[in-house]
From TrEMBL:
The keyword RNA-binding does not apply. One of its GO terms (molecular function) is transmembrane transporter activity. This is Purine ribonucleoside efflux pump NepI. Residues 18-397 form the Major facilitator superfamily (MFS) profile domain. GO terms for cellular component: plasma membrane. It is found in: Cell membrane. It comes from Pseudomonas graminis. It is a multi-pass membrane protein. Its main location: membrane.
Length: 397
C-alpha cells in the first residue's frame, strides 16, 4: 500500500502543470537567503569585530561555526527527517534561518553571535542536503538540469548583491540593521514555500552507514577530497576579501561595495557559462576552474595596490568561483544517481567542512602572518584540488 501511494505521488509531483516551477522558485529564493545570511559577515567583518570586541580573524570564525554545524546536519539529515514529509522539513529549516537572523541582529556578545550562527548552520546543512533530491522529485528527469540552474541562479543573486549591499547598508544602518533587513524577505519566502511546495512523503529512512558507504566507492572518495580542497581554498580567500581591500588596496567603503558588486555580478556570467559547458566539459571544468581561481587569487596580490587591477581580478574571481558548484553538483547527479539524498548530504558536508577549515586557516594566517599569506595558502589548496581531479579518470564511476 505504501509503495503504491509513493508511485502515485511522484508523477503528481513531477507534473509541470501543478505549479512545481513555483516551488523551484521558492527553493531558489531560500538558497539566496541562506547564502546571503551565511556570507554576509564577509562584507561586515570589520564592524562586527569592533562592536563585539573580537579580532577580524575571530569574527571570520562566525562563518566557520555555521559550516561546522552544517556539516553535522547534512550528514544526519536523511536520518533525522527520514520519516517526515519533505515539505515540512524544508519549511522548518527556513524557520530556523529566520530565528538565527533575529538572534544575530540582537546579539549582545560574540558568544551569542556564534550560537546564532550555529543555528544558521543547521538550516544551511539541512536545506542543501535535501535540495538536489527534492529537485529530482519536483520536476521530470529531463528538466532537472534546468531546475538546478534556477537554484544556482539564486546562489548567484545572493553572491552578487549580498556583500556589496551589506557593505553599503552597514555604513548607513549598521551591521545589525543589515541582518534585520533580511528578516521580512525570509518571511515572504516562508509564505511562498507554504503555498507552492507539494507534499513529498519520504521514500525511506536513510542511515549514516548508508551515507558513509558511498565513500567506499573510489570515485566518490576522490571526488569528496577534491571538493574539500577546492572549496577550502576558495573560502580561505573569499572570507577575508574585506580586510584585503581595506589594508592592502586601501579601498574606501563605497569602493569596497563596488569591488564586491563586480565580483558578485560576475557570478551570473560564471553560473551561465558553467551551466552551458558542464554537459560536454564537466571534468575539464572541475580541473581548470580551481587552477584559474588560484592564479587570479595570486594576481590580486600582485596588483593589490592598483585599484583597477584588483577590480578586474575580482570580476574574474567571481565568475570562476560561481561555476565551481555548478560543475560539482552535475558530477554528483551523474555519479550518485542511485542515492541522491545520501550523496547530497555527503557533498554538502564536504563543502561546509571545507568552508569551516578554509575560513579558520585563512583567519590564522591573517592574524599571525599577513593577508598575503592567507591568499597564498588559498591558492595552494586550490592547486591541490585540481591535482586530485587530474584528467577526470579518478572521478568516473
Amino acid at each position: 500500500m505504501r509503495t503504491a501511494e509513493l508511485q502515485r505521488t511522484e508523477p503528481e509531483i513531477a507534473s509541470p502543470d501543478r505549479g512545481v516551477w513555483s516551488a523551484v522558485g521558492a527553493m531558489a529564493m531560500c538558497v539566496s537567503m541562506l547564502i546571503a545570511s551565511e556570507f554576509m559577515p564577509v562584507s561586515l567583518l570589520t564592524p562586527i569585530a569592533s562592536d563585539l570586541g573580537a579580532t577580524q580573524g575571530m569574527a571570520g570564525q562566525a562563518i566557520s561555526i555555521s559550516g561546522l554545524f552544517a556539516v553535522f546536519t547534512s550528514l544526519f539529515m536523511s536520518v533525522i527527517a527520514g520519516r517526515i514529509d519533505r515539505r515540512y522539513v524544508l519549511i522548518g529549516l527556513t524557520s530556523l534561518m529566520l530565528a538565527s537572523l533575529i538572534l544575530i541582529a540582537e546579539a549582545p556578545s560574540f558568544l551569542v553571535l556564534m550560537i546564532a550562527r550555529a543555528v544558521l548552520g543547521i538550516a544551511i546543512g539541512g536545506f542543501w542536503a535535501l535540495s538536489t533530491a527534492t529537485v529530482m522529485r519536483l520536476v521530470p528527469s529531463d528538466t532537472v538540469p534546468k531546475a538546478l540552474g534556477i537554484i544556482f541562479t539564486g546562489n548567484a543573486i545572493a553572491t552578487a548583491f549580498a556583500a556589496p549591499i551589506g557593505s553599503y547598508l552597514g555604513g548607513i544602518i549598521g551591521w545589525r540593521g543589515v541582518f534585520w533587513g533580511l528578516v521580512p524577505l525570509v518571511l515572504i519566502n516562508l509564505l511562498w514555500q507554504w503555498i507552492s511546495l507539494p507534499s513529498m512523503p519520504p521514500k525511506s529512512a536513510g542511515s549514516v552507514r548508508q551515507l558513509f558507504a558511498l565513500l567506499r566507492r573510489r570515485h566518490v572518495a576522490f571526488g569528496m577530497m577534491a571538493v574539500m580542497l577546492t572549496f577550502a581554498g576558495a573560502f580561505s580567500a573569499f572570507t577575508y576579501f574585506r580586510p584585503f581591500l581595506e589594508t592592502y588596496t586601501h579601498a574606501t567603503t563605497p569602493q569596497l561595495s563596488l569591488f564586491l558588486l563586480g565580483l558578485g555580478v560576475a557570478g551570473f556570467a560564471g553560473t551561465y557559462a558553467g551551466t552551458a559547458l558542464v554537459n560536454e566539459r564537466m571534468y575539464a571544468l572541475l580541473r581548470w576552474l580551481p587552477l584559474l581561481l588560484a592564479a587570479v587569487t595570486l594576481l590580486m596580490l600582485l596588483f593589490g595596490h592598483l585599484k583597477p587591477g584588483v577590480a578586474v581580478a575580482m570580476i574574474c574571481w567571481g565568475g570562476l568561483n560561481a561555476a565551481i558548484p555548478v560543475a560539482w553538483s552535475t558530477w554528483l547527479s551523474r555519479s550518485v544517481s542511485d542515492d541522491p539524498e545520501s550523496g547530497g548530504g555527503l557533498l554538502v558536508a564536504a563543502i561546509q567542512l571545507s568552508i569551516m577549515v578554509g575560513g579558520a586557516l585563512g583567519g590564522l594566517l591573517l592574524d599571525h602572518v599577513c593577508i598575503a599569506a592567507t591568499f597564498m595558502g588559498a591558492a595552494a589548496l586550490l592547486v591541490l584540488g585540481a591535482l586530485i581531479v587530474g584528467n577526470g579518470t579518478r572521478l568516473r564511476g
